[in-house]
Design goal:
- Helix content is 32%, strand content 26%.
- By secondary structure, the chain is α/β, with parallel strands linked by helices.
- The chain has a domain of 68 residues.
- Strands 6-7-8-3-11-12 form a 6-stranded mixed beta sheet, with helices on both faces.
- Helix 6 packs parallel to helix 7 and helix 7 packs parallel to helix 8.
- The longest helix has 16 residues.
- It is globular, with a radius of gyration of 19 Å.
- 39% of the residues are buried.
């Protein structure tokens, strides 16, 4: 395996367009005392693809995100992120892997005392010490991408719920991560507002080629993301029903009591005859 390159502002690392998976779970088990959370879970995520995790509360969806980030270690099995086995890594080595990951939390988790621009550029300004003019340009770029350029000097308290989530997405993509992890990004939002967040997830998948995992309870949003694609013409971005050649870019993975109950496309999930899955979808 080639070593991870150190991510810098001058030369951000971008995902390689190959068929080599960016995330691999192989026979992963995890239990807390006598409660088994994950049972023999295996899956892969390919570059530029999005995998939607569905399941009831407590099924293990968010636990998988924590394992990817190295915040939890499985009891058994193997976990690879960008070709590196993270379940056996030291904390210092994990930091190098995390530099290539972006995380979008359910509530946005913005700093209330910082402006939108300061929130988005925090890592560039405070951690990577990027020259101010370069950092400012990147902040303006990502805020423009999510349609929030006019809000750069606003405080988080002045934003709606949907606007806060879009700022959180901008902050997650500021260092051009190879992988984005979304944990319930539309929960608590009305359908119209949630759609603006869904569109940003689609744009990052289709226009930026970012590999993503989306944990959600919102079936409406999950199917919308899977069944639409973003197309850019000049400065204009349009959203349309997904073309056949892109239909496989988003897959669903259903967890049931810690086990993989289904993995496949939106069409395959809609056509399933499995009683549990039909009840979940109804």
């Amino acid at each position: 395996m080639e070593p991870l390159l150190t991510q810098t502002a001058e030369r951000p690392v971008r995902a390689n367009r190959t068929d080599e998976p960016v995330i691999v779970f192989r026979n992963v088990w995890l239990a807390f005392d006598d409660h088994v959370v994950l049972r023999n879970v295996s899956f892969t995520l390919l570059p530029g693809r999005l995998k939607v995790f569905l399941g009831a509360s407590g099924a293990g969806k968010s636990t998988i995100l924590r394992i990817i980030l190295g915040l939890l270690r499985p009891d058994d099995g193997e976990v690879y992120v960008l070709g590196h086995r993270v379940d056996q890594m030291s904390e210092s080595d994990l930091m190098a892997v995390r530099a290539h990951l972006g995380m979008v939390f359910q509530e946005g988790a913005l700093f209330d005392s910082l402006t939108v621009g300061e929130n988005v550029g925090y890592r560039l300004y405070e951690e990577l010490r990027v020259p101010p003019d370069e950092a400012d340009a990147r902040v303006a770029e990502v805020l423009g991408f999510v349609g929030m350029a006019d809000y750069i000097d606003r405080m988080p308290a002045e934003l709606s719920g949907g606007q806060r989530r879009r700022v959180a997405i901008a902050r997650a993509m500021i260092t051009r991560p190879r992988i984005l992890l979304y944990d319930e990004p539309t929960t608590g939002l009305d359908p119209i507002t949630a759609l603006t967040v869904d569109d940003e997830i689609i744009k990052l998948r289709d226009l930026e080629g970012v590999s993503s995992i989306l944990v959600t309870h919102q079936l409406r949003d999950a199917f919308y993301i899977a069944e639409h694609e973003a197309v850019q013409t000049g400065d204009r971005v349009r959203f349309r029903p997904v073309s056949p050649e892109r239909a496989g870019n988003t897959e669903f993975l259903m967890l049931k009591e810690g086990e993989v109950a289904f993995e496949g496309t939106a069409d395959e999930l809609r056509r399933t005859s499995d009683p549990y899955l039909r009840a979940f979808l109804s």
